[in-house]
Design brief:
Helices cover 14% and strands 32% of the residues. It is an alpha+beta fold. Strand 6 (56-57) and strand 7 (60-61) form a beta hairpin.
C-alpha cells in the first residue's frame, strides 16, 4: 500500500478516511413506498406530493410529471414521509443520483427511493458527496448497491 493510504474491508483508501455504515450515520435509513400506487393518485391540489426517481436530480428536483397521492395513502405510509434535510437516492434507472430534500418538500412522500435522514452530528455536505453518482462507481467498492450500506468519509 502506498504511503498515505491504508487497506480496509472496502479496499485501499486514503489514511484520513473512515469506513462507516450508512446506518451509523443516519437516524433513518429506509426505502420509499414500494408497490402499486396508481389507485392512490389524486388530481386535486390538496393531495400529497409524491416524489419518484424521475423527479430527483443531482442536487435538486424536477417537477415534470409530478404526482400527488391521497392523504389516506400518505397516512398509511408515513415511513416514507420526507422531512427537510433528508437525503433521497435513486436506486433504479439513474442509480446513485442523490439530493437533499428542501424545506418546501417537507411532508411529501416518496416511491422506491433510498430515504436517509442524517444524524445530528453528520456533515451533510460530506455525506452527500460520498453518495454522489460520480463517486459511487470509484470510491464505494465499485458496487452501486453499496449506497445503502457503506460510506467513505474524511475524518
Amino acid at each position: 500500500v502506498k504511503p498515505g493510504y491504508k487497506r480496509t474491508e472496502v479496499g485501499v483508501i486514503p489514511e484520513e478516511w473512515e469506513v462507516k455504515t450508512l446506518g451509523s450515520l443516519t437516524r433513518l435509513l429506509t426505502n420509499g413506498f414500494v408497490g402499486t400506487v396508481t389507485n392512490a393518485y389524486v388530481e386535486t391540489d390538496d393531495g400529497v406530493l409524491y416524489i419518484q426517481g424521475y423527479n430527483v436530480e443531482e442536487n435538486g428536483f424536477n417537477f415534470h410529471g409530478i404526482k400527488r397521492v391521497s392523504k389516506s395513502f400518505h397516512t398509511r405510509h408515513l415511513k416514507s414521509c420526507l422531512q427537510s434535510g433528508d437525503l433521497l437516492t435513486i436506486q433504479t434507472g439513474d442509480i446513485g443520483v442523490t439530493t437533499v430534500v428542501p424545506p418546501e418538500l417537507a411532508g411529501a412522500n416518496c416511491h422506491a427511493l433510498v430515504h436517509k435522514a442524517p444524524g445530528e452530528r453528520v456533515n451533510l455536505r460530506g455525506l452527500l458527496s460520498c453518495l454522489g453518482k460520480e463517486l459511487c462507481g470509484s470510491n464505494v467498492v465499485n458496487h452501486r448497491s453499496a449506497l445503502t450500506s457503506i460510506c467513505l468519509l474524511p475524518h
